[in-house]
Amino acid sequence: MEKPTIVFFPGAFAEPSCFDALVSQLKPGGFPTQYVPLPSVNPSCPPSEATCERDVEITRKQHLLPLIEGEGKDVLLFVHSFGGVVGGAAAKGLSKAQRSQANLPGGVIGLIYCAGNINLEGETLLQSVGGAYPPFIKLDNPSEGLAIISPAKDVLYSDCGLGLIPTLEAGMIPHSPTSFETPSPPPAWAEQHFDGRRLYVRTLHDQCNPIQLQDIWIEKSKVEWQTIELHSGHCPFISKIPDLVSIMESFVKNCEKLDKQGCFFEWKPGAVGIMCVVLRVSGQQPLHYFSRSSSTDLLFSDTPRQWSNTTITQLLEAILYNARKYYQRF
Question: pTM score, two decimals?
Answer without folding.
Answer: 0.81
